[in-house]
Amino acid sequence: INHLKQQFNPKAPNRVWTTDFTYISIGHKKHVYLCVILDLFSRKVIAWKLSHKIDAQLAIDTLELAIKNRKPTESLLFHSDQGSQFKAKSFRKALDDNHMLASYSAPGYPYDNSVTEVFFKYFKLREANRRQFHNIQEVKLSCFEYIEGFYNNYNPHSANNFLTPNEKDKRYLQNKSH
């Protein structure tokens, strides 16, 4: 069921998280897989992980990292595509255990998860497709530099009134404390 219904602008952090996978080549016919989770409020990448396997465990590991990083205090909507990894019993249990409501894009309809799709589009355009990687360590460094070094800190978003993800989160917390 799609509970998100393309409502991409929640009023606070930790209300709606979105996720997806992409692959990155590391040589001839070899790939590693990147899973990211974004908080839709600020468009911030709140967790990311790489693996040689695209499986439910990668999704769970990334989810656990997001929970550790953000410590959500109330239930939230967790939106993904129809990938088998996100529908696996083990992943659904991880969502249930953390009081998260699963939401799924319509099959074959990327617009329902367009914020995450656009993140990957620009990640590949600006970073991954400009390089040749030979191993997962090189990809990890590249992801770190792009996500932590550039994207969250220096990439303004029209949805954030041209604030970066970190600026939008910081402004929200400042306003909340006043």
Q: What keywords describe this structure?
A:
single chain; 178 residues; alpha/beta; five-stranded mixed β-sheet; 6 helices; 21% strand; globular
| C-alpha termini separation | 38 Å
Helicity level: 40-55%
Radius of gyration: 16 Å
The tally of helices reads 6
Largest sheet: 5 strands, mixed
Q: What characteristic shape results from the CA principal axes?
A: globular
Number of separate strands: 5
**Low-confidence runs (pLDDT<50, min 5 residues)?**
none
Q: Mean pLDDT, nearest integer?
A: 96
What is the N-to-C order of secondary-structure elements (H for helix, E for strand)? EEEHEHHEHHH
Structural class: alpha/beta
Report strand order across the widest sheet: 3-2-1-4-5
What is the percentage of strand-forming residues?
15-25%
Short description:
This protein is an alpha/beta fold and 178 residues long. The chain is 41% helix and 21% strand. The protein is built from six helices and five strands.
Describe the protein.
The chain has 178 residues and is of the alpha/beta class. 41% of the residues lie in helices and 21% in strands. The chain has a five-stranded mixed sheet with strand order 3-2-1-4-5, with helices on both faces. Strand 1 and strand 2 (31-39) form a beta hairpin. The longest helix is centred in the last third of the chain and has 19 residues, at 136-154. The radius of gyration is 16 Å and the shape is globular. The mean pLDDT is 96.
